[in-house]
Amino acid sequence: MAYVLQVQITIKPENVERFMPQVLANAAAARKEPGCLHFDVNVDPQDRTQVMLYEVYKDEAAFQEHQKGEAFKKYLAEAVPLLAARERKFWKRAN
Questions:
Q1: 31-63, pLDDT tens digit by residue?
Q2: Biggest alpha carbon distance in the chain?
Q3: DSSP helix/strand/coil, 48
Q4: Which domains does the chain show, CATH number per domain?
Q5: How far apart, in whole angstroms, are the C-alpha atoms of residue 60 and residue 86?
Q6: CB 3.0–4.6 Å: which of 9, 22, 28, 58 could bond 35 by disulfide?
């Protein structure tokens, strides 16, 4: 059963230009991982400080491996501090 992560992000307005390349680099690296089935970075068309990540992994173990990767560690260290808010919600695909 797939393991799904939805992340609601609010970027500090002054950090949008610095944050976006970093989140896109993390997504690109994740898509190359064998356990990552899908990774979308979505931006609110009315408010570019609002971003939603939609990530799908083969299972929870694949997500745990993702968190051990260098790209994710760099994202946590450099991109997350640019945020005003970050809320993660985990799901399991029903099918």
A1: 999 999 999 999 999 999 999 999 999 999 999
A2: 41
A3: coil
A4: 3-92 (3.30.70.100)
A5: 20
A6: 58
